[in-house]
Structures are given as structure tokens and as C-alpha cells.
Amino acid sequence: MSLDIFAERGIPLEKQEFDWRDLVRVPYSKLDDDAFTRVRVILMNGIESEALRFGHAAARMNKALQLQLARVRRVEQHQQTLVNWLNPPDQSALETTIGFEQVAIEVTASVAAHEPDPYMKQVYHFGMLEDFDHLYRYAALMDRIEGKDANALTQCYTDIRPGRPTAVEHRAPEDDLRECYDRKKASPITKLNALTIMAGEHQTHDYYMTVGPTFADPAARQLYAEIASIEEQHVTQYESIIDPYETWLEKWLLHEACEVYNYHSCYTQEDNPRIKEIWERFVEYELGHLHYVMDLFKTVEKRDPAEILPQTLPEPIAYQSHRRYVRDVLQAEVDLRANGTQIVGPREDSTASMAYRERMNRNGSPSQIVAAGYRWAPGTELTLQNGAKAPQQARP
């Protein structure tokens, strides 16, 4: 179901209202709702967080736009509050972390599968295999300190197994930068994909930096510190693929289009009727923001938004299991490394990154320590490294 973003004007900004009761809704159920409801809530919190981050940065650089940015930002902040407060209070920080990594795997896999630019597709594959390993490491941590099976949260949609080992993901800064798309030639979906994944990864970094110090277990504290460092690398990677020569208003326009696109993707696939109503309402709000910025774009830059935006939204993000797709990428690309802006074979690994990695891991890697001996299997049974089942214990 395509959405004509030029014909649909949504709800005007001045009619977008909240009250305190409206902001705090009944949360989803961490076990009874579909896992993709949690995935959508986490991602949309990240999308709104990026909207606020961009809005403040733009205000600091554009005196003439400060009032307009403040008006839109106030609504965005309330939208983020409503979305983020859908997370249930009985969901631990570690359980939410499992949700974050499922977002990173399934949403990035969908984006990569529909990305028309082969270079961008490979960049998404590269980051996805690292997040795939993070899910495995956090699942091991959950087994260790909470005695829980992460699969109860991911609901069999996502494999829990090693990806590119976290210990080898540490790179020198020059090897985290990538080539950017050309703002005049890139397709609209390429721009929306880049903004979506950058927003999700930035939120993940900030979340790990917030909750990591709250754990008492030393292994947990170190694991969060290690993976937060990788997430910072991911933010560096994904923000570098966005053309820095877009104007501030061009970027604002794309941010609003990205929000419409993501809320619409959520709305078309949500099973929970209470949450679906929220996605539908925020599609209308974001269309209102988009047309507000379109008018500014015409007035200030004297340009037609049709230069930047597609008439209708691209195919929605697919909220479904990408197990086969991820397995194929894992098999073909797990050993790849980065050297400068290029993804290369292991023999071409960067000397700067190898030196940095050796220095960071000189006293061991928390991600290896926490997963030592851990092999996930259905029913939380341990299996041997080659995949064979461990001998069953004799019944007492």
C-alpha cells in the first residue's frame, strides 16, 4: 500500500496535541506480544531520538530556523516519550538489550535486501554481522546472570549464534569511514535507509552507555563497555555514508520523510490494535511535519521538494524473520574486514586497525570471556562446538 506524501497532508502542526495521560499508555507485553512489536517500538524511539538530535544541531547552526525547529521538536519529543514509554516496566535492561540487537539484525537485513546501491548493501552487511555477534554475546550474558533464554524474547525469529567475533571488530577510526552517496544521484530509498540505520545505531550506543554502569556483575559492565565502543564505530560508519553536502533544510526534509516512511512501515504490519492506532496517528503527525518543512524549503531555498522526495513511499521495511538471508551473508562475508573506506578480505586488513585491536584486547576481550563455553540451542541445551548435542545427563 503506497502512500502519496505530496497528496496526503496529515494533521497540521498546530493541531498536534498531547496531555500527560496521553503520553503514558499501557505498555506492550514482553512475552505475549509479537517480538516485532518490541522491535518497532525500539526502532521508532531511535528514529524520534535522531529527530531531536538533528533538530538541536540544526538550531545551533541556523538562527533563522530556530523557532520553526523548536515547534516541530516539541511535538517530536512528546512522540518519543509516548513511544518509549510503551516498553514494559518488567522488561529488564538486559532484556531490552536483546531487543536492541534484534532490531539491528532484522531491520538492517531488510534494508540491505532492498538497497539498490551495491556498495551500500555491503556496508549494511558488514555492520549487521557485527550486531549479529552482539546478540550472541548478550544472550550468553543473560544466561550467566539471569538464567534466562534470550530466545523467549526473540521468539525464534532470529538465530542466536556467533557472527564476526566482537573481539576483532575493533578498528582504527580511519577504517570506520565509508564513501557517501551522491545527493544528486542516489535513489530516495538509499537516503531513507541510511537515516534509518544511523538513527537505530546511535540510539543503541547511547542506551549501552546509560545502562552499562548499572550492572553489578564485572563481566556485564565490561561487555557493555566493549560493545558500546563498537556501536560508536557503527555510528561513525553510517553517518559517513550520508552526503555531507546536503543543505540543512534538505537534511531536515529527509528526516521528516524518514519518519513518515518508518511510521507507515510500522502501521502496515502491527498486530497489536492499541499500538497500531499510535502508528497510524503518528503517520498523520509526521505528514504534517513534512509539509511544514516542504513549505519552508520552498520559501527559504526556492526549490521544489520533488527534487529530493519521491512521489510515493518506497516498499516498507519488512518486519519478518530474515534468518535465511542473514545465514547466507554470514557464510559469505563473516571474515571480511575494513581497510579505509573499503570492505576487504582478511589478508588485506588494515595495519592501523590490527595495532589498535591488539592494544585494546591485550588484557582479554570481555565478549570472549562472557561467552566462553556458551552454545545456544533450543531449550537452552548446551551443545558441543561442532554442533553435536552434548551427552544427556542420567536421570537421578
Question: Any overview of this molecule?
Answer:
By secondary structure, this protein is an all-alpha fold. It is 58% helix and 2% strand. The protein contains 13 helices and two strands, in the order H-H-H-H-H-H-H-H-H-H-H-E-E-H-H. A two-stranded antiparallel ribbon has the order 1-2. The N and C termini lie far apart (58 Å). The relative contact order is 0.16. Residues 381-396 have low confidence and may be disordered.
> What is the tally of beta strands?
2
Computed CA radius of gyration, to the nearest angstrom: 21 Å
- Please trace the helix and strand order, writing H or E for each element: HHHHHHHHHHHEEHH
Q: Strands of the largest sheet, in order across it?
A: 1-2
Overall SS class = mainly alpha
Strand content: under 5%
Number of helices in the DSSP assignment: 13
- The pLDDT mean sits at 94
Oligomeric state of this protein? single chain
Overall spatial form = globular
Largest sheet: 2 strands, antiparallel
* Poorly predicted tracts of residues: 381-396
How far apart lie the N and C ends?
Answer: 58 Å
Helix fraction, binned, reads 55-70%
Organism: Pendulispora brunnea
InterPro entries: Ferritin-like_SF
Protein name: Ferritin-like domain-containing protein
Give the structure's gist in a few sentences.
It comes from Pendulispora brunnea. This protein has 396 residues and is mostly helical. The protein has helices spanning 20-23, 35-61, 66-84, 93-114, 118-145, 151-154, 188-211, 218-240, 248-269, 273-301, 323-333, 351-360, 366-370, and strands at 337-339, 342-344.
